[in-house]
Write a structure and sequence with these properties.
diguanylate cyclase activity, diguanylate cyclase, coiled coil, Diguanylate_Cyclase
Amino acid sequence: MTDINAVVSEVSKLRLRLDQAQLSYRDASLKSRREIVILKRLISRLSVACRGLDSELDHKLAELRSELEQHKDVSKLIPRLAIIERLVTRQANFTEKETQRLEQQIGQSGETLKRVHGLPAQLKRELRNLLGQPSETLAQTHKQVIRILELYERALKLMAVSSEAMVKKDSLDHDLQLQLTSELQRLITELDFDGEAGDKLLSIRNQLLIGATPQNLIELSLEVLRQVLDGTRQERRSSQQFLDSVNSDLATLQKTTNQSVGQSEAIYEHRSEMTSELADLATSIRQGLSEQKNLEHWRPTLTELTKELLVLAERNKALEKRERALIEQLGFNENKINNLFEQTQDFRRRLNDQERKMFLDNLTRVYNRAALNDRLEHEYRRWLRYQHPVCVAMIDIDHFKEINDSYGHLAGDKVLKIIARTIRQMLTDTDFIARFGDDEFMIILPDTNEEERNKCLSKIRETIAQLPFRFRDQNVSISVSIGATLFDGNDTPTDIIERTDKALFSAKSTGRNRMLWIS
């Protein structure tokens, strides 16, 4: 009896534990289902919140949202979630870049608005406060955009009701006028048109050096555009005429060559037939001479064979005549090919000259900004691969505007040419120099140690300071300021240019005629 009670007691305990386990599993299952429901709801709401960012992402999220609403198993949606994850990552990278561009545009737009004449002090203070506030989130950036648009709207309304703005509505901003003048001069110096177009562009450049009124500046700008278009059209016509001539000659050569090949094959076949016939005749004659004892009886046959030989001789003469004509045709083709080769070589030389002129500054004869961008990109890629030291330095002529104002722009051009030549002579074959701006030069010193690059830049600065300039019977001393840096860390070519510009600004701010490094 005692054993039965013990068994009953153990069974009761086991049943109690089983009931508890079932309750725990049910609670865990309910909790898991609630979490899955919450997760589905969160994903659906996030997909709605992300709507409009990217059409492909919208489509994928809509499909996912539809399947979640149908209460499908989440585990079966893992591949689709992986695709959406990649799209979201791509969109995040794109959004980050666009946000950076937006922030840059805010800064540029703010600086542009600052230069507008006649803005009230209150608006300027609000603009300074707006630009001085860092934007840490995309929402703050959007607020800045909205705010700067509001400031622009206020500025436009103020300008619309300002009588001074109405009077000056047809005039150009002074800073923009100077910038346009400088850009036109740079464009003209980089163009190398011959003939009337080149003479007109040179005349326009001389007028720009002397100075032009706003109205005259617009007329000169339009004239430059006309000359550029005319010169480009002329170059295009010349190139098209050359290509048409080459195509026509090549078509003629192809036709005559095909004819010559056909004639050569026909002559070869005829000569083969004649050789076979001649061999047959020779065999017949040899057999006749060996078999016939009485040649008088064989004379008629020999006469017929002789006639056939004469016929073969005439046919051979005709073939020789065709061969002479074919040789003459081949000689004509050879001359035509030689002429085409000379034409293409001449055109290639012209293209090489144009390419060289395209990458050279017309005034200083050093490389221009386009060539600098190419070389800087090349050195950047080499630096990424080999991690060798690359020094980039910007050289600016101190008080260059005063030289132009005091002694004329021709004197300024002479200074630029002499300094450019001096710098180029002090560089090695692997170094690089280009004209970066009006009175700025940028040099690249690859694979140099600290001592070598410091010595090179210091020597450039000291040598230029000792150059003997003389204008209008006056001895003039000219110095340069230098800002330099090295590729480092996560630098890009844009970072390098900005850093050298900062270093140059610091060098000029601390007294000029000095060199300053920045990292």
